[in-house]
Write a structure and sequence with these properties.
single chain; about 150 residues; alpha/beta; Glutaredoxin; globular
């Protein structure tokens, strides 16, 4: 069973017991995962079209999930750049880093190439995974924000 912990907008999925975050959103609260429940499986394509399935890494690697709104925001670009600086430390702990955004594959690819990111940029255009994890912030949505999901804890 996967357990998880929230670190800002980051979820660490590991085989050991961890503490779960608490989110309270009207629309997504019923989809939230409670302490002790398995983390929802996910299957998303990266910016290059390769599929990534959480269940394929179960028992093999820890997974760090980073949810962000999109490459259009300077804060998000900076945060992902900082994660890149620490990628070697993450991988040395038998872990992989996946970032998830409702942004377009083209935008994600261009951003990843320009920033020199060495981790997977996964596309959740329909917000399915974001909703499964119960972290869609409806109040943050607006027409200029693709998906508008925002993680809180």
């Amino acid at each position: 069973m996967w357990n998880w912990i929230a670190i800002s907008a980051t979820l660490l999925l590991a085989p050991g017991p961890l503490t779960a975050p608490v989110w309270a959103e009207e629309e997504s609260a019923s989809a939230s995962v409670s302490v002790g429940q398995p983390a929802p499986d996910l299957e998303l394509a990266d910016a290059e079209g390769r599929l990534h399935r959480l269940s394929e890494l179960k028992g093999k690697k820890n997974v760090v999930l980073v949810f962000f709104r999109g490459a259009w925001g300077p804060v998000f670009r900076r945060q992902l750049g900082e994660l890149q600086k620490h990628l070697e430390a993450v991988t040395s702990l038998n872990s992989v880093l996946w970032s998830i955004s409702p942004d377009t594959p083209e935008s994600m690819q261009a951003f990843g190439d320009k920033a020199g990111l060495g981790f997977s940029l996964l596309v959740d255009a329909e917000l399915e995974t974001i909703k499964k994890y119960g972290i869609l912030n409806q109040r943050a949505r607006n027409d200029s924000t693709p998906g508008g999901g925002d993680c809180r804890h």
